[in-house]
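FAQ: What does a multi-protein file look like?

Like this. Sequence, then tokens, then the next protein.
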Amino acid sequence: MLVQPPPGPLSGPSLARNRRRNPLWRFRRVFFVLAVIAAVAFGGVWAFASQVELTDDNFDDLIETTYICTGEVVSGCGPDNAANELSAEGEDRVIVDFAEIPEVVIQAVVATEDKSFFDHRGVDPGGLLRAAYQVGKRELTDGSGSLQGGSTITQQYIKLATQDDADQITRKAREIVRAMKLEQELAEELGSTEAAKRQILERYLNRAYFGRGVYGVQAAARVYFDKDIGEINLPEAAYLAGLLRNPSRADAW
């Protein structure tokens, strides 16, 4: 006579009871649905990112202020000895290389605009989360939420260099994708992430608006302090950096 062994923990009613007690098994359908949603969302993000392309910012075609000197000036015509000056469409701008911008200006701008600039790859996830939290908080209180804040220097540069008239959400999403692509492509082109960061900062600081019709740090140093950018000290650098976010309100003079 054969005697059936009692059901073990991995078979029969015991297995069914173990499955019912296991939260992973009980919520398996929920996890499956969430996995499908995540896969679809990832595919949508991938498809969106693949369609967003970098556009030429025409940096080399930016028109600088022209200085006009008398015949007595043999060489070195500039703002100190010019009899007149012409600005393109009211934009006072003088292009400078990254090497001409003092370290105190770089540090002040990074500390004010994007503390993790040299560490991220175009986008700061922590900054985006903080901005999203603030937007949600304002929406729940007075409905005045907006997609401001959380932008890195790279994203701000993309915004300056790219004319994108899409709605706010789409434009912000494109800025994020373009910022990541720009940093990756520049790092590959220039041979290092550090070189890519320097070029982004150089172009951003030559494009940025500082108020009073002034564009770029060199023209800003001249207008606000009557100095070349290379002569700017720490307090002056902090003042210029403060102008970037809201020039009209930050201008104390």
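And here is the next protein:
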Amino acid sequence: YLKATRFANRFVDSIVANSPQVRAFTERIEGVPADRLEVIYNGVDLEALHRDGPNLALKDKLGIPRHHRVIALVANYRPIKRHDTLLHATRALIDKHPDISLLFVGANNAADPCMDEVLALAQSLGLQDRVHRGHAKGDIADYLSIMHIGCNCSESEGLSNAVIEYMAAGVPAIVSNGGGNPDLVLDGIDGLVFPVGDYQALAEKLDLLLSNEEIRKQYALAGQNKVRREMALPVMLDRFERHYKSAAGQP
């Protein structure tokens, strides 16, 4: 497959990557010259993700106590997504912050062995009553409205649409340093970053946001402003239009 891709790339005038990390990977692995690579971030419809307040009916439906703060991970149940890191971090936090629940939003397949492993780990850690599962079907904005913190724990990632949506909706993000996550979230500026698999580091960063509402609001606002500047749908469309014109030799 890689050989075929490298061959096809010979006939390509330009390749668009959705993050600097993906660009560097394409240059290194596929052998594409840097001058034929352009980075254009994914775009998001900000208005479609806006809600005036938390959807408490959804919280009730999921079985999350209304007074609980929600730490969410939007990802399908795959080992590379590292749900285990968030579970272990939560175990380390639960005594200090007893009013937290976890929300896993991903494909809900009853026959999924990966999901079974995640739920088995939750039970072994005594967190089975803290884990709530959802499957967004066009209503991700409702899920975002009940989140207090959004996490991404992946070992590898391109440019995570889930993280973009966290930030766009004003949900502060804590992400691993896997793949393109550090391209989206600058540690200590518009969110927090931790080393892949380091659940203790994740627990510390979660504790910081759970303990300090002002810092949580600061990162939420900074992330939202970043998405408005760089990843709003009109921004993405404008960048593609200008890139196509440039590739076609137009001024």
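Q: Is there any per-entry metadata?
A: Some entries carry free-text notes. For the entry above: The first strand starts at residue 15 and ends at 17.
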